[in-house]
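Please discuss these two lines.
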Amino acid sequence: MPPTKIDRRSLLRSALATGTLFGLDALFTTERTHAAAVGPNDQIKVTKLEAFVLKNSWVFVKISTDAGITGWGEMLKDDAKACAAGALEVGRYLVGQDPNRVVFHWQAIERGAFYRGGPIKTAILSGIDQALWDIKGKVYGVPVYKLLGGPTRDRIRVYGQVSSVTGVNAMKVGPNATRAPFKYIEGQKFVDEVAERFKALRERYGSGVDIAIDFHGAVEPPTASLLIKALEPYQPWFYEEVVQPLNVDVMAELAKKTHIPLATGERIFTKWGFREILEKKAAMILQPDVCYAGGITELRLIAGMAEAYYLPIAPHNPQGPCSLAASLQIAASIPNFLIQERGDAEHANLLAKPLPPVKNGYRDLPTEPGLGITIDENKLMAQVGEPQEYRTRYDPDDGSVIDW
């Protein structure tokens, strides 16, 4: 009777079931013991795609496979329900496919409809792309950045809450005043107040702390012109979203009027959106969001475009653990990385175990396969619910709608 053929997946699953996995050391390397019961050359298919909307508006996507490997990603937190529903629609295409063909699927989802792009569809694509890379890294038993040619650095600088404990020495603030900027042209009193408060912040922290200021696109161009000049003496690290991000020509004009670098990108998506920013020299720091700009696949290309202009990437991140973990994979695989936003946030409430801690202002590279994190599904499901209500902003003086 001929011997029964046993493939790698069957052997590993049998070992896991019988508790004899440690007896396989002679067959597989130690590194492979961190991977799932499947190898790079084994056939694997997507079996299910799920989407979860949390009460804080974070949107997660989970992709399951017939090999028992799952991948996780995050999508845009605005329009949360639309993103979740759209991801399920993409599931009709993705189920039955080989998840390892990450770039192929990126192109199929991006180009698979007559109307392409847009913030919601690109956010859906971004979350799915993260989840597919998470699966691919687990199949190969390595962090995603190793599949992208990394690591390009030994540790990742972060900014957030300045702390002597973590060593974080970079932060970002908004234009601080007794009220938000909502007039087309703010008067001297408002401009002086913002400048004085930033001056006090600079004096408090000294020159050893990098302090950026985020206008959040809520400042109208005439007021932005006044503020960037008033703040210059106190050396902001960079100005972020000085005007609405699609107002590229005005942003480029403002960039010419100051020696402080302009940064933008959290509401720009895909390589095509960032091309205009680069060509018109509208910013010197690009801030693509991995949950919105096209996922890991696209951020790697955007970084390459920026490198051609000798400019750095500082990934935007106001969201959860997949967003941070995917951003760290980008940071570890590109040469022109500047700093990671909210890189000091642990998001421990959704993780089975925390990411490497922040030390001396840096986070060590993740070492686990895929995105390097494990979602605690029980904790995640406990937070599933209605997302936060959309909020429109109004001028308190005359009731007109203003920028958010």
In short: The chain has two domains: 46-142, 147-394. Residues 46-142 form a domain with the Enolase-like; domain 1 fold (CATH 3.30.390.10).
